[in-house]
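Second attempt. The first submission of Insulinase family protein had a stray character pasted in from the spreadsheet, which I only caught after the job came back as garbage. Lesson logged: always re-copy from the clean sequence file. Corrected sequence (439 aa) follows.
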Amino acid sequence: MKKLPLFLLLSILLVFSSNAQEVSFEEYDLSNGLHVILHKDNTAPIVVTSIAYHVGAKDEDPERTGFAHFFEHLLFEGTKNIGRGEWDKIVSSKGGRNNATTNDDRTYYYEVFPSNALETGLWLESERLLHPVIEQVGVDTQNEVVKEEKRLRVDNRPYGNLLAEIKKNLFVEHPYRWSTIGSMEHLDAATLEEFIAFNNKFYIPNNAALIIAGDIDIPSTKKMIQDYFGPIPKGAKIEHSFPKEKPITQEFKATAYDTNIQIPAIVACYRTPSFTTRDARVLDMISTYLSNGNSSKLYKKLVDDKKMALAVQAVNLSQEDYGIYAILALPLGETSLDALVMEFDEEIQKLQTELISEKDHKKLLNQFENQFVNSNATLEGVAGSLANYYLLYGDTSLINTEIDLYRSITREEIRDVAKKHLGSNQRLLLEYLPKTENQ
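This time the job returned cleanly.
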């Protein structure tokens, strides 16, 4: 039997030893505005150092889309004290790993280390914040990296542009209307000065949260945080204010084409409230009820029983300002897209006029209990949750209490929220079709 490395083995043990116990944390602000969240867990000698910036694709100039995602890559280029190409070498030399993610609302960097390398993680993230080197050679290098990522994950991937097509049709005023990866033409046209200005505006301590989770000593960790991050100057205050969308009051249709597919898709899309609202949590439950698992209502009906669809999914894509509720299906055989929409409507109408069964309601509650436990089953999950709940929800304690919101959702609320947000007059119907030579 192949032996697992000690670091990996400890990570696995940590997962299996985790449970739904309350996540303890301490939070405070440095004088420069950096918010700090500390979570001590001595289960295994592992530590996560992470920093979340309240900047995403929605903060971009409409003529310079893709900047936030581009910076996810660019800020690994190096700093005043870390040479180009050295970042990953430093992390791996300490037995760690690192990554970053960007969405429309925030950018998140993290490292996972053996706990004796905590100071290395703090030094790396303070260097990224205080001494980034933004030069033309790095911009040119990462431009090619991002273009290749777009080719692989979007342009050459079946249904890869589906979400982008939904967004550009569903949003008219709000910057959610463009994709996170942005426009390659915009990135090509940007000057070095524009990249430097974007960094100076958004990657500042008072627009960020530092999260340390794992096997730490609180007093010594606080001292290191003060030493590494305390001297970083505070930046100018950022106002996150965006245009509001007018309500959708009449169904409208759109068509998009994809050269990478042979089977069309139909998507019913609704613009829904922020993930901070109670209604968004109810919509989470509705999407789970409709299509999560082989016994869910839409899957069993369209895929198993009527054999009208190859696949069907309902998903609530909640974000900080708005959400997208989407029901998607791929037709089987001669099934028309219109026929699938009729089946969507039938199930939604049932939700709007009838109460789901007590058995189904109990099943939903059990599924969300399980999701809650799994989301905090690793230190990485805990750190990411702490970051999001503070930065985007404005309430770090939701890491322990949000499950109570789901537990309190009633069958009547499910009916009422379906009626409020999923009316046929409130949606976009998007036909996503194979592209032929004539189109």
